[in-house]
Every structure is written in structure tokens, then in C-alpha cells.
Input
Amino acid sequence: MDYVLLTEQFLNGFQLGIILFLMAAGLTLVFGIMDLVNLAHGSMFMIGAFVGGTIALLTGSFVVGVILMVPAMLVIGVVVEMTALRTLYPRDHLDQVLATFGLILFFNEATRLIWGPEGLVVPLPAFLDGIVSLGFGITYPVYRIFIIVIGLLVAFGLYLLVGKTRIGMLIRAGASNRTMAGVLGVNIPKLFSIVFGLGAVLAGLAGLIITPITQAAIGMGEDVLILAFVVIVIGGIGSIRGAFVASIVTGVIDTLGRSFLDVVLLLFLPANAAESAGPAVSSMLIYILMAAILFFRPQGLFPPKGAR
Amino acid sequence: MQKYGRRLMGALRNPANVFTALVLVIFALTPIVAPALDESFYVIVFARIMIWGIAAVSVNLIMGYGGLISFGHAVYLGIGGYTVGILAFHGVTSAWIQWPVAIGLSGLVALIFGAISLRTKGVYFIMITLALAQMIFFLSVSAERYGSDDGLSILARSDFGVSGFSLNDKTTMYYTIFAFLLASVFVSWRLVQSRFGTVIRAAKSNDPRVQSIGVAAYRYRLTAFVIAGMMCGIAGLLQANLESFVSPDMMNWQRSGELIFMVVLGGMSTLFGPVTGAFVFLMLSEILAGWTIHWHIIFGPFLVLVVLFARGGIAGLLTRRAERD
Output
């Protein structure tokens, strides 16, 4: 187990954590504030990738794609919130799960109709296509560093938005006690639309920036969505800070587990047993982590203060 | 006898019950009628629907009566199915070994998953059941020895060692499934009527009150969760035998979503609702899929509309209409 590979895999895990954070941040706010189980958040991931990718291909510039994706996802998010989800707030979780499950089927099929079943290949932007040396003999793709930087910037921006601005104060108030915030004169429906639009932009951004590595595919958001569920359960629903810490931890553990678990298992098990158990156990690792954390802290690591 | 006759006639005044009876009669007669009409294809279709019906009945047990929204229930289909598949792969085909192991393993997994997830409530519960099911899903995907993504073909069906009773015979297979369907409804009826079922239902409607009269609802819920897991495991082992094939797709999270929808569509917390729900759901997808390959674009909004406007599902709609008239 040499340190070069270890560092690279650690960075890969960090980058996965960043993607998870962009998904989980929106999801945890929507849960925390609106008490809405929104499975269709994964569809926002996918739509962001397809819409932004198409703009990037049409204009020939990935950066333009990213920039124009923001207002596009904001509009899509707000429209979805106002047409489909608004009626679901007073309903119970079961109705929300089912209705947003129906939305997933719809969005997947609509995407297939518009873009065809093959998905969309978005090339790596030329100025980010390359490998950079980080010293000590470690090299790493520029584009993945770009993802990490973007993610950290967004996380910092969210920290400022939620922690230091008036709208952030309203969001926090909504997350810890929605009814009380409403009674004190916060325009809750408007706040909901803003938060949902913001969540859609973040999810869309995550989907778009991962596309040059993976390509855009139908249903691409669903696996990420389930990982993001794990993340917000670990982090505590409604907490951005919890989502950030849990995302990074989940991303790193998952990635390192997949690359090194068989090596670690070799210390305890005979070679052939370690080789067959490695992939199986590593795919279960983060779920075991989740179960363990829930066992000791059923509310997650960072439950928002004053949450019901 | 006369008393039962009168009660039956009374029940049939409700169109929801007429519909249930109709579905059951269709199930009962298909192997006789379908070949006569040269539509033998429907024997397999209805056998499949009945298996989903068993799984949906098990979901209704915890969701409809217990209020526990498990979004990972399809995992027990997979465990039941894979147990049969893996044992057969290693040459163990006796049903007397396969079936108890499959049911026992489903129960054991349900016990572990239930013990973890029942510590939480609401949204957490939904997401944890989903995540735990994903774990087993990925386990099956990474099991290269048993076919990974491609699934595992089962070369020999479960063998009961009884002459004249073989699951290779289509009609025997069909009526075995039919018998299990009726048995699952019977079990859920007896459970719901018992003291046990009363506690489960009471904890759904008012948990603090159940706690305060000194009943630990956790243990009851966990038991219900295990029973539902085992029942769904039976559906899984039947499916493995019917299709002679298992794959990770059996426990894809979308299957869990579909199971929940079948229950809601038919009518939650009603005895036969999950069965009629499975029937309508699968027939409708069959018809729509024959119509266009993009049938999800109709089916998705249909699902949303059912949730928004048809609370109580088919049973609720038909019953309400009867009361209005």
C-alpha cells in the first residue's frame, strides 16, 4: 500500500464526497424545512447534466454550460415545486414518496424521449484536460481538482448564505421550527420555493460537473440520491454542516474501502477468502457505518438545534 | 349455512368486494379457461401477478396496519429468491431444505434490519430501510460467483420428493402460488384480528398512548416486520421457481416503490386491497407497455394522480361510490 496510490484514492474519495455534498445539501434543506421526502431530487441531478451538457455542446464551451445551467435549473426547480410538490406538503410521507416516485418515472421517460436512450457524452473542457503534479511523486487530473475546488467554493458560499445572511436566518429558523417561523411572519411558501430552487441548482451542478467523467445517462441520479440519503441520515436531517462532514466521510470511506479493503482483509484472512470478501464487504461499508452511527445517535451526528 | 349466505350477499353489495371476488375467480380459473381460449400466456402472467400479490400483502401488514413505510421491502424477494438459486447452484434442490432456509434467512435479515431501522421514525425510517436494502442489492451485484448483474439461472426447480407433485408442471406451480396467496391473506387476517394486531394498529394511530398503558410497541413492530419479511421471502422463492432465474433486479429499489404503490392502489389497510392492487398495477403496465415503449411517461403522472385524488385506492373509490348511491 504505497502512499501515492493512497493519496490519489483519498482525493478521489474527497471528490465523490463533494458531489454527494452538492446533492445532500439541497436534500437536507428540503427535508429539514419542508418536511418533504423528495425522491425526485435525483431527477434534478440528471436534468442538470442533460440541460447543462446540451448547452455546453451547443455553445462549445463547458463554462457557459455551467453558468447557464444555474438559471435553467432554478426555473425548472421552482416550476416543479409550484406545480407538483406544493400540494404534497400537508400530505403524509407515504404520499410524498409515491408521488415523487411517479415524478422520477416521468422525468426518466421524458429525458429518454428528448435525448434518446444512449445518454449524452460531454467532452472534458480542453483547459481542464490534463494532469498536474502535486509533489512527492503524486499526480492528479486537473478536472478532478476543479470539481473539488468548485465544491469547496459552493460549500463556503452556502456557509455564508445560511450562516450570515437574512435569508439564511429564515432558512435556519424554518429548519428548526417551521410553524414558529411562520407565526413570526416568515413567508413560508416563498421560502419553500427559494429553497427548492436552490436545491435543484446544487443537484444540477453536481450532475453537470460529474458528466465529463461519467457521461449523462437516464436514471444517473438515483444511485447518488440513495447515497445522499445515507449522508443526510448520518449528518442529521436539516443540517448543512452535518451534510458536509458526512458527505466527505462517506465519499472517502467508500472509495478507500473499494480500493484497499482486500489488502486490509489479507491481514486477517487467507488470500482467496480476502479476495472474494473484499468487494462484497466494501460495497456494504458505508451502510454498516450508517447503521453504527444510528445505533448510537438516532438523530444523526449534527441534528439542528431545537429540531422537533 | 344460511347465515354465511346472507353475510356473503351483504358483502357483495359493496362493489369493492365484487371486484375482489372477480379477481379471485379469474385467478382460480385461469389454468382451466386460458388454454381453452388458446391464451396459455396468461397462466404465466397471472402467476407472476399473484406472487407480487403475496409480496404486497406482506407490505400491507407493516405499512397498512402498522404505519411503517418500508422502502426496501423488495430485498426479501431477493433473499428468498437467491437462497433458492444459490442452494440449487450448489446442488441442493430439495424443497424441504431450500424453503425453510429461504424463509428463515428472510426472517433473520428482517430481524436485523428491523432492529436497526425501528429505532427511528418517519423520514429516517423510509431512508434507512431503503439504504439497507441497497446494501444487499450491491452485495448481489458484486457476487461474481452467482452471476453479478446478469443474474443466476436456476437449472432445477425445488424438488419436494413427492411423486405426482412437481413444480415443473405448470398447473401445479400455478395452484401452489394461488394457495400461498390465499394463505398470506388468511395469515394477515388472523394477525390483524388478534391482540397482536390490535397493538400494531393502536401504535400506528397513537404511539404515546400505547407506550403509556405499558405496552412496548417496538417488540410488536419488530415481530410484524419479521413476519412480513418472511412472507415476502416466500414470494421470492416462488418467483425464483416460476422464472427459474434470479437477478439483482428483483430487489432494485424501484421494485420496493412499486410494491408500496400496489398496496396504495388497491387500498391500504384492507385485506384484499394489495391483491387487487397488484392485479390492476401489473395488468395496466402490461397494457400500456404493449401500447408504447415510453409507457412510463403515462404511468408516472398516473401514479401522482392516484396519490393526489384517489386516497384509499380502488377499494376506497368503489366503496365511496356505493355509499353515495
